[in-house]
Amino acid sequence: MAQLTLEWFLQNQQHQYTFQLTSITKVPQKLRLGRDPSQCDLVFADRSVSSLQAEIFFSSAHDAALIQSLRPSNPPLVDGYRLTQGTAPLSQGSQLQLGHIQLRVTQLILKKLAPSPPAAPAQPLSYGLKCPNPSCGKVSHYEEQILKQGCPWCGFSLAAANTVLLPR
Which of 32, 66, 122, 144 could form a cystine bridge with 87, CB 3.0-4.6 A? Predict the structure, then answer.
């Protein structure tokens, strides 16, 4: 049984929430985080949190717990990185930030539901830079030369670019 426990502090009080595949949630097998109780399972009243900011789910294909941003204009931070698009894997000890709210994964139990074929060798994560020019917004692979030269499509400076995880 896959299980993930989140911990956070509000006004010096410790809070915990445990999510399992069998948990009853707004969207089956997904834990939604945000400010709106009609859309979210884990609700934070803090105005810095979006009404529907992120969701956590278990992926049997990746044998992992993943987080996905649902609000590109206010993305969560996952272990210090802005998750503006795609998903990011979570592990025990992962740090999440939704607005001003900081959470930590204190327990993560993953149990494969069915045997899977042998996995390919692990590849390192690939990072990209999202052009901050509102009329461009394209993502290029992170390379020092691109960072110095600017966006390959529009030439805009990438000094204020968001870092994104690229799909493998």
Answer: 66
Same domain, 84 and 138: no
Question: How does 69-96 read in b/e, with b if 16+ C-beta sit within 10 Å?
Answer: bbbeebbbebeebbbbbebbbbeeebeb
- Please name every residue paired with 126 in a beta bridge, in sequence order, or none if there are none: 166
The H helix count followed by the E strand count for the chain is: 1, 14
57 burial type by CB count under 10 A (0-12 exposed, 13-18 middle, 19+ buried): buried
* Residue in the block written with tokens 């899977």: 116
Same domain? 88 vs 132 = no
Tell me the residue type at 112.
K
- Per residue in 123-146, pLDDT (tens digit) is 566 788 888 898 888 888 888 787
Same-domain pairing of 28 and 64: yes
The predicted model scores a pTM of: 0.66
Q: 74 with 90: CB under 8 angstroms?
A: no
